[in-house]
Amino acid sequence: MARRRTDRGRICVTVLFVVAASGAIPINDLLDRASQQSDRMHSLSTMLTHELGSHFPPIGKVMMPRPGSCHTSSLQTPNDKAQALQISEADLLSLARSLLQAWSDPLMVLSSSVSTLPHPAQSRISNKLQQLQEHSQSLGDGLEMLSGKMGPTAQTISLLPYRGGNDLGQDRISKLVNFNFLLSCLRRDSHKIDSFLKVLRCRAAKMQPEIC
Question: Structure pTM?
Answer without folding.
Answer: 0.84
